[in-house]
Amino acid sequence: MVLFVAKKSYFLLKMNVKDLKIENAGLAVWQLLLIIVFCGIVSALILPQFIKRQNSSVIAKVVKENLILFTQKNNLTPLECNSQDNNDDGWIQCRAEDTNQNTIYLQCAYDQRRSNCQKVQESRK
Fold it and tell me: Where are the transmembrane segments (predicted)?
């Protein structure tokens, strides 16, 4: 009798395990696609928060300081700088005038690797 009960319970247990394995054999294709789409949407919402963005007020302040220092060293008059870096190279376009009223085009750095300005070209007014 005990042997019969043991065989019967083993058979039922084995059958239930097989049924569970068949039901949960893996994810369906639509479930995988749904997971991938969900992960893509979450990534698109979260990742931009961690990507470095330009802070225009801080950049403008640093560039203005660099322009003033450069123009003082080279006897120039500072004119103006663009408000943002158009090509993300770490330089912003600025202008200054020399004593002969020549406009000098400069590139001034705003990142921590470079803290200076460099001359690009000159033109007469």
Answer: 28-47
CA–CA distance, 58 with 40 (Å, rounded to integer): 32
Q: What is the CA radius of gyration of the chain?
A: 34
Nearest to 67 by CA among 56, 53, 82, 54: 82
State the residue range of the domain holding 110.
56-123
Closest by CA to 106, choosing from 116, 90, 122, 119, is: 119
Same domain for 75 and 89, yes or no, is yes
Q: What confidence tens digit (pLDDT) does each residue in 20-65 have?
A: 555 556 778 888 899 999 999 998 888 877 776 667 777 888 888 8
Same domain, 44 and 29: yes
pLDDT band at residue 1 under the 50/70/90 scheme: low
Rounded Cα gap, residues 63 and 60, in angstroms: 5
d(CA 45, CA 34): 17
What token pair was written down for 20? 């569970």
- Please tell me whether residues 64 and 103 are part of one structural domain: yes
